[in-house]
Amino acid sequence: MSAPPEVVFNTATDPSRATGWLPTPLRDNGWHPADVGGPLQARWPGSDGWSAELWIGQIDAGGSLVRLELTADLPEDRLLTIADEVLAKLARHVADNLTAG
Fold first, then answer.
1. CB 17 within 8 Å of CB 7
2. Which residues of 51-63 are buried (b: 16+ CB within 10 A; e: fewer)?
3. What's this model's pTM, rounded to 2 decimal places?
Protein backbone atom coordinates (compact mmCIF):
# COMPACT_ATOMS: atom_id res chain seq x y z
CA MET A 1 0.00 0.00 0.00
CA SER A 2 1.15 3.52 -0.67
CA ALA A 3 1.13 4.65 2.94
CA PRO A 4 3.46 4.41 5.92
CA PRO A 5 3.08 1.17 7.92
CA GLU A 6 1.83 3.01 11.02
CA VAL A 7 -0.99 4.63 9.02
CA VAL A 8 -2.04 1.27 7.58
CA PHE A 9 -1.94 -0.38 11.02
CA ASN A 10 -3.83 2.41 12.75
CA THR A 11 -6.48 2.38 10.04
CA ALA A 12 -6.82 -1.41 10.18
CA THR A 13 -7.18 -1.49 13.95
CA ASP A 14 -9.49 1.54 14.23
CA PRO A 15 -12.86 0.19 15.44
CA SER A 16 -14.75 2.95 13.63
CA ARG A 17 -13.34 1.73 10.29
CA ALA A 18 -13.71 -2.01 10.89
CA THR A 19 -17.24 -2.24 9.50
CA GLY A 20 -15.93 -0.94 6.21
CA TRP A 21 -13.32 -3.60 5.58
CA LEU A 22 -13.61 -6.62 7.92
CA PRO A 23 -15.85 -9.49 6.78
CA THR A 24 -19.04 -9.76 8.85
CA PRO A 25 -17.99 -12.90 10.82
CA LEU A 26 -14.95 -10.99 12.09
CA ARG A 27 -17.02 -8.03 13.27
CA ASP A 28 -18.83 -10.15 15.86
CA ASN A 29 -15.97 -9.61 18.32
CA GLY A 30 -16.72 -5.92 18.70
CA TRP A 31 -14.34 -5.02 15.84
CA HIS A 32 -11.30 -4.80 18.09
CA PRO A 33 -8.33 -7.02 17.41
CA ALA A 34 -8.13 -9.72 20.07
CA ASP A 35 -4.46 -9.24 20.59
CA VAL A 36 -1.63 -7.40 19.03
CA GLY A 37 1.50 -9.45 18.54
CA GLY A 38 4.78 -7.84 17.66
CA PRO A 39 5.06 -4.45 16.08
CA LEU A 40 2.30 -3.82 13.57
CA GLN A 41 0.58 -7.18 13.96
CA ALA A 42 -3.05 -7.80 14.90
CA ARG A 43 -5.41 -10.76 15.13
CA TRP A 44 -9.19 -10.91 14.98
CA PRO A 45 -11.08 -14.01 16.11
CA GLY A 46 -14.54 -14.26 14.67
CA SER A 47 -17.57 -16.45 14.74
CA ASP A 48 -18.07 -19.78 12.96
CA GLY A 49 -14.35 -20.58 12.70
CA TRP A 50 -13.33 -17.29 11.09
CA SER A 51 -10.14 -15.49 12.05
CA ALA A 52 -7.73 -13.01 10.52
CA GLU A 53 -4.13 -12.10 11.19
CA LEU A 54 -2.55 -8.99 9.75
CA TRP A 55 1.15 -8.16 9.49
CA ILE A 56 2.39 -4.84 8.17
CA GLY A 57 5.96 -4.06 7.20
CA GLN A 58 7.76 -1.20 5.55
CA ILE A 59 8.97 -1.21 1.97
CA ASP A 60 11.11 1.29 0.07
CA ALA A 61 9.74 4.75 -0.64
CA GLY A 62 7.59 4.83 2.50
CA GLY A 63 5.05 2.24 1.43
CA SER A 64 3.78 -0.80 3.28
CA LEU A 65 3.74 -4.50 2.66
CA VAL A 66 0.52 -5.96 4.05
CA ARG A 67 0.05 -9.67 4.69
CA LEU A 68 -3.38 -10.98 5.59
CA GLU A 69 -4.02 -14.54 6.69
CA LEU A 70 -7.74 -15.19 6.57
CA THR A 71 -9.15 -18.44 7.96
CA ALA A 72 -12.66 -19.80 7.48
CA ASP A 73 -14.34 -23.07 6.58
CA LEU A 74 -14.64 -22.18 2.90
CA PRO A 75 -13.10 -23.48 -0.31
CA GLU A 76 -9.65 -21.99 -0.86
CA ASP A 77 -10.62 -20.12 -4.05
CA ARG A 78 -13.54 -18.43 -2.27
CA LEU A 79 -11.33 -17.52 0.68
CA LEU A 80 -8.73 -15.99 -1.65
CA THR A 81 -11.43 -13.92 -3.35
CA ILE A 82 -12.67 -12.65 0.02
CA ALA A 83 -9.10 -11.84 1.10
CA ASP A 84 -8.54 -9.83 -2.10
CA GLU A 85 -11.79 -7.92 -1.50
CA VAL A 86 -10.88 -7.27 2.14
CA LEU A 87 -7.45 -5.91 1.25
CA ALA A 88 -8.92 -3.68 -1.47
CA LYS A 89 -11.42 -2.26 1.04
CA LEU A 90 -8.64 -1.71 3.59
CA ALA A 91 -6.57 0.09 0.94
CA ARG A 92 -9.50 2.44 0.24
CA HIS A 93 -9.84 3.19 3.96
CA VAL A 94 -6.10 3.86 4.21
CA ALA A 95 -6.33 6.27 1.25
CA ASP A 96 -9.32 8.01 2.86
CA ASN A 97 -7.40 8.25 6.14
CA LEU A 98 -4.44 9.88 4.36
CA THR A 99 -6.71 12.31 2.55
CA ALA A 100 -8.49 13.27 5.78
CA GLY A 101 -5.24 13.75 7.69
1. no
2. bbebbbeeeeeee
3. 0.85
